[in-house]
Amino acid sequence: MTAPLSERERAVLEAVIETYVQTAEPAGSRTIAKRHQLGLSPATIRNTMSDLEEKGYLYHPHTSAGRIPTDLAYRVYVDFLMRPPALAPAETQHIRGELGSQRAIDAILARAAQVLGVLTNELGVAVGPTIDEAVLERLDLLQVSTERVLLVLALKSGAVRTIFVEVPAELAAEAIQQVTIVLNERLAGLTLREIRATLAERLRDASASEPGSSELLNIFVQEADELFEIPTTPSPVVLGSTQRLAGQPEFATREQLQGLIEVTERRDLLREALVSRGAEGLTITIGQEHTDTRLTPFTLVTASYRFGPLTGVIGVLGPTRMAYDKIAALVNHTSRLVGELLE
Q1: What share of the chain is helix, strand, coil (3-state, %, to 5)?
Q2: Average model confidence (pLDDT) for the chain?
Q3: Residues 4-31: pLDDT tens digits?
Q4: CA torsion, points 191, 161, 272, 101, in degrees to nearest 10?
Q5: Does domain 7-81 have CATH number 1.10.10.10?
Q6: What number of other Cβ atoms are within 10 A of residue 270's Cβ?
Q7: Boundaries of every domain in the chain
Q8: pTM of the prediction?
Q9: Mean pLDDT throughout 189-204?
């Protein structure tokens, strides 16, 4: 539980954070007094900063007279002090112009990650949607031999899945047509995950009068997990350029740079961090709030995008010292634009 802050402490904390974000140098009381019109003397600011340090919001780096915000300070700033600005028309037009020429999902995400990296001076990141949540638009059954029927699944995401279904004997065209009608009536509009979980229940009272229809329906019930599963590799993580991020003071030492390289090369680590935020809208995870300790030097600002039933995540990875307000506004706007373009 965090210690409550007075109005003076909130004002000084906000000033320290904004100063440190802009300068990457520990903020001293005289610097705060000069840069921010708080109506407080340097001595009063210094005493207030000492109080904030005791409460866990600031800390001394080595013997420096200035203070640096803690992860807790950034959390308070994000939750209570931050005021995301309205983006300038030139910025929104630039983002739309960069993304609008793309059509494929992968191309839009790659361009979005690149643009976010350039605009924020951080590392743009994105992950594609999972097809398992795709909605079945319709299905068709085509007999290709006496013992095989081709199942064609058309999904609302635009994907098409085909799979051969083994049948015990040649079926009449009327039976195949009847089963096709029943399956579309019972399954269209559901996600593939829902179909696999509830197919037996949905077909329990299905009437099929044509010879062979009941046997074919029973095959679908028994093989639902295989027939309505789309084998995919995990959605790939898309990264912008790491060059801008690597040039920041937080990665000046060899050890710090190696930590950054390790995180960017571990796509599985980033994918897990991104996918876990898939349905949460705008999310900001700061330093030690990450479940994986390899991410504790970083802040991850993400927003989910949606098109139809599918969702993915786009955002920015950077050091905990970042312009949270501006970055949150850019990530939120870009995620909405990505969803619009994909629709």
Answers
A1: 50, 20, 30
A2: 90
A3: 899 999 999 999 999 999 999 999 999 9
A4: -100
A5: yes
A6: 22
A7: 7-81, 89-130+234-342, 132-227
A8: 0.76
A9: 91
Q: Rounded to an integer, what distance in angstroms lies between the CA atom of residue 207 and that of residue 213?
A: 9
DSSP 134-177: PBEEEEEEEEEETTEEEEEEEETTS-EEEEEEE-SS---HHHHH
Beta-strand pair 123-127/310-319: antiparallel
Residue 213: pLDDT over 80: yes
CA contacts within 13 A on the Cβ side of 182: 23
- Tokens linked to 36: 């921010």
Query: What's the pLDDT band for 202 if we cut at 50, 70, 90?
Result: very high
Architecture of domain 132-227: 2-Layer Sandwich (3.30)
Walk across the sheet containing 136-145 and list its strands: 136-145, 148-155, 160-166
Q: Mapped to the 3 state alphabet, what secondary structure does the chain carry?
A: CCCCCCHHHHHHHHHHHHHHHHHCCCECHHHHHHHCCCCCCHHHHHHHHHHHHHCCCEECCCCCCCEEECHHHHHHHHHHHCCCCCCCHHHHHHHHHHHHCCCCHHHHHHHHHHHHHHHHCCEEEEECCCHHHCEEEEEEEEEEECCEEEEEEEECCCCEEEEEEECCCCCCHHHHHHHHHHHHHHHCCCEHHHHHHHHHHHCCCCCCCCCCHHHHHHHHHHCHHHHCCCCCCCCCEEECCCHHHHCCHHHCCHHHHHHHHHHHHCHHHHHHHHHCCCCCCCEEEEHHHCCCHHHCCEEEEEEEEEECCEEEEEEEEEECCCCHHHHHHHHHHHHHHHHHHHC
Closest Cα partner for 269 from 109, 125, 130? Answer: 125
Q: Kindly report the CATH number that applies to the domain delimited by 89-130+234-342.
A: 3.30.450.40
E runs forming strands in 62-135: 68-69, 123-127
User: Between the CA atoms of 16, 18, 23 and 24, what dihedral angle is there, to the nearest 10 degrees?
Assistant: 70
